[in-house]
Structures are given as C-alpha cells and as structure tokens.
Design goal:
Lambda_DNA-bd_dom_sf, single chain
C-alpha cells in the first residue's frame, strides 16, 4: 500500500470532524474565512492548505493543528504505514521535551478536540 499524501489524510480527518459535528461545508468555511469550494478541495485531499489556512479550518471546527497532527499520526498507525515509536528516537525529530507524540498536546486536553478528531 502506498503511503497516502499528508493532504489526503488531513482532508479525511477534517471532513470526519465536520460530519461528526453535523455541520455543513458552508458553515465551517465561513467560520474559517475561506470559500466553500476551497474547503471542499481540502477535504478531498486535492489542495494542500498553508499552515494559516489549516489553523483557520481547525479553529472553525473547534480544534487545533496540534490535535489534527496527533490524529494524522494515529491514522498512519492504523494504516500500518509507520511503526509506533517514540519520537525521541526518530532521526532528526528529537527535541528536548518531546519524547512522545502526545506530549505536545497534553495542555489542550481541557477542550473537546480529542473527541472531534479521534479515529
């Protein structure tokens, strides 16, 4: 199985979050300040949004880019594309204080984003 593109996984997760909330495309697009067509292309994995647009869409869904990143990692694990590992052992990805993929988002657990993007 070929590894899906990051934009495809992001789109899948964003669409899943929107549908779980029972929200329409135009509502989330308006909240994010982008066109409905652009959000549709993002959700279908056809466009790769800038980090600013990604943050706006996540914000429109009541979540964060950090939560989306965490959910993306989970999705890749479910597809068995990447082995489950401690980031501190990944070449070039080690950083002080980031020993697990969950550490960067632990401070946000007061919100509902974990449930929104959980696979």
């Amino acid at each position: 199985m070929a590894e899906p593109l990051l934009r495809e996984v992001h789109g899948l997760l964003l669409r899943r979050a929107r549908l779980r909330q029972g929200r329409k495309l135009e509502e989330v697009a308006a909240a994010a300040g982008i066109s409905m067509q652009y959000l549709s292309e993002i959700e279908r994995g056809r466009k790769e949004p800038s980090s600013e647009v990604l943050a706006a869409v996540c914000g429109g869904l009541g979540t964060t880019v950090a939560m989306l990143t965490r959910a993306t990692h989970r999705q890749y694990l479910e597809l068995r594309i990447v082995p489950e590992q401690d980031f501190s052992t990944a070449p070039g990805l080690s950083a002080p204080g980031l020993s697990t993929p969950d550490l960067a988002v632990q401070n946000y657990r007061g919100g509902t984003a974990v449930e929104l993007l959980a696979a």
